[in-house]
């Protein structure tokens, strides 16, 4: 089943993978990563970490930085070694505090990037997340359309009495 406009547009650029996988159910990503780890050797290049990051925003007039608050951040960087000796590195940095999810997505990243065993399942999970994001976007657009105001009925203001 091909739901894509063209085959050249799929898979999406690697920069979009985490966005799509993050929209898919986390349990499915973690289960698939565990299945990959059962067939391949997965090593942490850096230990998965989680914490809080400060969200900074520059003022548009004076360009001063303002701290809007803290956001949860998790990070993982792994190396996946296939049974045939093929090595691939993957990483994930998420606005989420689950280290296990960051590690799972890093494993999927490495697996799909190098086309290691089980990359087909990682690609299917990518499609699941993409479909979820498209549904969310469609519902948001429907809400936006229903709240649109037509100001053309108010007139152009030429009949206003300027005293």
List the helices and strands and how they pair.
Layout: H1 17-23, H2 26-39, E1 41-58, E2 65-81, E3 87-94, H3 99-113, H4 119-146
Antiparallel strand pairs: 1-2, 2-3
What is this structure, in a nutshell?
By secondary structure, this protein is α+β, with helices and mostly antiparallel strands. 39% of the residues lie in helices and 26% in strands. It has a three-stranded antiparallel sheet with strand order 1-2-3.
Describe what you observe in this structure.
This protein is of the alpha+beta class and 163 residues long. It has one domain. Helices cover 39% and strands 26% of the residues. It has four helices and three strands, in the order H-H-E-E-E-H-H. Strands 1-2-3 form a three-stranded antiparallel β-sheet. Helix 3 (99-113) crosses helix 4. It is extended. The N and C termini lie far apart (68 Å). Keywords: Lyase. GO terms for molecular function: lyase activity. It holds the Pfam family PhnG.
């Amino acid at each position: 089943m091909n739901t894509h406009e063209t085959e050249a547009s799929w898979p999406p650029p690697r920069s979009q993978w985490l966005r799509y996988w993050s929209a898919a159910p986390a349990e499915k990503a973690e289960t698939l990563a565990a299945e990959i780890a059962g067939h391949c050797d997965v090593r942490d290049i850096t230990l998965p970490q989680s914490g809080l990051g400060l969200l900074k925003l520059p003022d548009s007039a004076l360009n001063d930085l303002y701290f809007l608050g803290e956001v949860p951040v998790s990070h993982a960087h792994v190396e996946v070694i296939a049974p045939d000796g093929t090595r691939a590195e993957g990483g994930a940095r998420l606005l989420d505090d689950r280290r296990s999810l960051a590690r799972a997505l890093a494993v999927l990243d490495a697996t799909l990037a190098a086309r290691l065993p089980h990359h087909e399942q990682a690609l299917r999970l990518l499609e699941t997340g993409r479909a979820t994001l498209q549904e969310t976007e469609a519902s948001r657009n429907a809400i936006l359309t229903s709240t649109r105001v037509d100001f053309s009925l108010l007139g152009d203001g030429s009949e206003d009495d300027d005293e």
